[in-house]
Specification:
6 helices; elongated
Length: 144
């Protein structure tokens, strides 16, 4: 079975997958392992759906011959798939950047920092930061 699983897998795919996983994990550390609530809701619904499938199976089904620990681990497959695709398609990065309505890069570390709503009459010379210090590098932001 494993031979067929790795037929289309080459070394370059593995290297690219590893590089993307490292970059994704570094970003996940930067946002302090926070995920939006909706991904947890999707995973909970997936777990409940799997549980309902198991409860609807007849007692003589082959899956009922497994121990309860095995069945619980199998029930975690759908939530794991939900989390995997959330990460694979850049969900944490999109959720992080969409939580601010207006952002500007920090002049020191280039990470996004919330800004105040812009005044219509003023030109966009420099951003007016909503925070006094950058949450990433800790430096004091210039007062615009």
């Amino acid at each position: 079975m494993w031979k067929h699983f790795f037929d289309g897998f080459s070394v370059i795919h593995g290297i690219l997958f590893l590089l993307v996983a490292i970059a994704s994990f570094k970003f996940w550390i930067r946002i302090r392992f926070r995920l939006p609530m909706y991904i947890h809701v999707i995973a909970a619904v997936a777990f409940a759906f799997t549980y309902l499938i198991y409860s609807a199976m007849p007692p003589d089904a082959p899956v009922n011959k497994f121990s309860s620990i095995h069945r619980f681990l199998i029930a975690l497959i759908l939530p794991a798939i939900a989390y995997f695709f959330f990460f694979a398609y850049g969900g944490p990065r999109a959720a992080y950047y969409s939580r601010f309505s207006s952002v500007a890069p920090c002049p020191f570390c280039q990470s996004p920092v919330r800004t105040l709503p812009e005044d219509v009459s003023s030109p966009k010379a420099s951003p007016h930061y909503a925070e006094q210090m950058c949450p990433e590098c800790g430096r004091e932001l210039p007062i615009g």
